[in-house]
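Subject: Predicted fold for C4-dicarboxylate transporter DcuA, 445 residues

User T.R. writes:
Posting the sequence so we have a shared reference for the thread.
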Amino acid sequence: MDIMIILQVIVLLGAIFIGIRLGGIAIGYAGGLGVVTLGLVLGMKPGNIPWDVILIIAAAIAAISAMQQAGGLDYMVRVTEKILRSSPKFINYLAPACGWLLTILAGTGNAVFSLMPVVVDVAKSQNIKPSVPLSLMVVSSQIGITASPVSAAVVYMSGVLEPLGWNYPTLIGIWISTTFIACMLTAFIVSLITPMDLSKDSVYQERLKAGLVKDAGAILHGEDKPGAKLSVGIFLITVLAVVLYATAISSNIKWIDPVVVPRDAAIMSFLLTAATLITWLCKVEPGKILDTSVFKSGMTACVCVFGVAWLGNTFVAGHEASIKEVAGDWVKQTPAMLAVAFFFASMLLYSQAATAKAIVPVIITALGISAANPHDSYMLVACFAAVSALFVLPTYPTLLGAVQMDDTGTTRIGKFIFNHSFFVPGVLAIAIAVALGFVLAPMLI
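User M.O. replies:
I've generated the structure tokens; pasting them so everyone works from the same file.
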């Protein structure tokens, strides 16, 4: 291997490591540091900035944060709490199902933050280690991004795949069914193989004696804001409008032809329209939207995608020919290797959309996939869920939030990087979703 390539890899991984160590928005900052070093020191041409992904995330966050300020997100969480408390014995299945559904509807996994105290409380009331339902919910929220009609990752992938003969409803159907079944099967397997008796956990007993564990009881209080239900209704109608419009302009359906407003522009304008209606009709003060947790975390995500994806694109573009040759050979021989590539790339790039944006064009070129030769495109559909390996490094916000909110101490990060509560459920969920994808996708191409 050439010394220059070694140095470039060191810069790539070093910048990502610095960002992870600093945490939060600094992950994106460190991406910029990596681009500067690769460009000015090692002579690499900066790659493309994924503006489409960034703008879709920004538009979605604009609508969701307006809904949060109107009380809509709290209303959705209260409804979900009732579901969780109605059948506490099934918390290991209801927690990931609710986390998955909230992510599907909202287009962001950060919606599960508000559910975490409820999950911990219900699990304690059933003498179940909270680590089991919490880890399942966090993983389900990450994999749910690959099935949400308003997530940047799904918008990008459907835009790439439609010219290859895939219609939008088929793609959404495959990704929704495979990810949900994977989450439920993972919950079943984890419940079987994990010791769940909370009273027998030594760390829990120590914290209980020290008075660090709260009694089980009601978590969420307060009345709904006047515009809460209306804001949820506006947002859900917008999600439905996104699905219907994307279906209507799909190349195989063509209910709207010619297409004046392309899908990306339509989705962004729909979401901004929803934000406008929520702010206007629900009497939300625009200045307060900037203080919502969703807006802050969402804008952090935009900066992270900006920096890290730009860094990844810079490295990939600089070695595109070599990557195409190697990737083409590997994936042709073993299609599941694409899932492995997605898995490790998302672990480093920290974003489902950024991973897809960096890897998919290279794979399409390497395999010679085109509208005239679309057969191998089923691999992209089947492996898409594998871009969700954001749980591998224990630094992702929802993962850290789950650890902090579990006062029993059962949700924890070990001394080694990978021995944490989320690793096994995450790997299982992705493996099952990809396996199901390889069953369904070839049948529907």
